[in-house]
Structure formats: C-alpha cells, structure tokens
Amino acid sequence: MAEKKATKAAAEKKVAAVKKEAVKAAAPKKEAVKKAAPKAAKKETLIINAENAGFKAGDVYQALATAEKALTVAEIAKKAGINEQEVILGAGWLLKEGKIKDCEGKIVLA
After folding, report:
1. Which of 8, 27, 57, 108 could form a disulfide with 103, with the two C-beta atoms 3.0–4.6 Å apart?
2. What is the pLDDT of residues 18-38, one digit of tens each?
3. Cα-based torsion angle of the residue sequence 65, 66, 67, 68 in order, rounded to the nearest 10 degrees
4. CA–CA separation, 90 vs 1, rounded Å?
C-alpha cells in the first residue's frame, strides 16, 4: 500500500514538472535587450621627448610635402594620421629648425 502511495506521489510530481515545462515553452520568450555600454573615453597621453617630437616632425613635414600647399593643423593631422597635439609638437620642432612658416593661419613649408 505504501508502495502505491509513493508511486502515485512520484507520478504527480512528474506531471507537475512536465506542465511547468510546457507552460515555459508556450510562454513567449523575452528577448534580452542589450544596452550599448557607453564607450570609455580613450585617454591618449602624449609622450614628449626628443625622439617622439622628431618622429612627429617627420610626419608633419611629409604631410606638407605631399600636399604642396598650406594646410591647417586639422588637415595635417588627417593627412599624417596623427592627432592635433602631435601635429603641434612636430610643428614646433620644424618651426625651430626654420623648415615651416605661418601663412594666413595655416602651416606651409619654408
């Protein structure tokens, strides 16, 4: 007799579990909405030493030489593939050497 009760209770548990699974399967699934995490501002540090300044000066000089005209700091940065701070660093080097000059707010080869 105890055996029948245990079997009946186990069968009821199985039926309840199957019903729960059926309800879960029938329920519309909620798609997880991924929120785009805000991009962390990339902090670039400008290393100021003679070697780096010399390389940036070379980048600025090459951009001006290929353009063959006066360019703004932003235009040089775009052509050379460096940021504006690096352009200013390189331009300072070239100004000191007398290789570039100011022409109506733009930089041109001297």
Report:
1. 108
2. 666 666 666 565 566 666 666
3. 50
4. 95
